[in-house]
User: Fold this.
Amino acid sequence: MLTPLFFPVKGGTEVHVYNLSKQLVRQSVEVQVHTTRDTYTQRGALSESEIIDGIRIVRHSRTWSFGDSPSVLHFHNLGRKLSLWNLYTIYFLLLDLRSRGVPTLMTSHASLVTSRGALDYLQRAMARRLSALIAVSEWEREQMIKRGFPATKIRVVPNGVEEEAFTLPPRRIQTDRPFLLFLARFFRIKRQDMAIRALRKVSGVDLVLAGQVHDVGYFNELKALVKSLGLEDRVKFMLDVDQATKYALLDSCTALILTSEVEAEGLVVKEAMARGKPVIARNKTVFPYLIGKENGFLVSDEDELANAIDTLLSSQELAKRIGEANLAKAKQWRWEIIAKRILEIYREVGA
Assistant:
């Protein structure tokens, strides 16, 4: 596995790579994760190597290097446009003859669905060299085909949902008022500001914004927005929540909100569904493919978001019905099932 960032960084890509790797190890596959020593905000902060749940982690200063004759190279995410990691990956796939002797796959995690300017041509050429290109949703597949990536190379395998989402006993946090949960890294594309602005239009409910800080400038803007709207007593920021706290928040919230500009799939939405919670998401990108009327609400702006919140707050029966539908739907996303599908693709391409 090759990914620019990895644990303790816990964005969607990193959680995906960890859970896939853990399940492959359980299925007797030796897995190494090659990554950098960086976090969102610090360079070179992490140790050079460690083992997590049987997964060997190898951290490089700036980019990975080829070695040890792996059976398959599985790349994840080209989000940092002109990083040395990305440039070396493109060079390796296009020009390094060693890439011809090993099956190569990429799960792009939405990094190939938006224009990268001068990199677009190189990325399409790189994709033609890959053995397979994995999209995590039908929406992502359609977008990649529209942008000129080869349809014959693309396989759709959704993100799995980690086992704790299905097995951890429910644990509720006592609060004075019900609350909505926005669980995502603090990054402008996630649009936490939309949820803050919608909150001022509803009453009787608070908002918890939880996640790692990816963009310090945007995080500070959010805090200033909360203050300017007089919502300091209704909006709570929680940073770097651990697994137990994450699921306690999901179990305790009225609904999960995610209003991102772009998501390849929205893993946290699936985690909330696995805990039997209603979801409210942006009516764009992957969400219309993931969320039907029986699963929650799709919204386009802060007014529609406020209306969805009011609808849920006014009907416990509706919230219960949505939660039961989501529990049933989530069973297909267990990582054991997803890892077997990935293994099938490895074998298909000759690993």
Remarks:
- The chain has two domains: 12-160+334-348, 164-332.
- The chain has 13 helices and 13 strands.
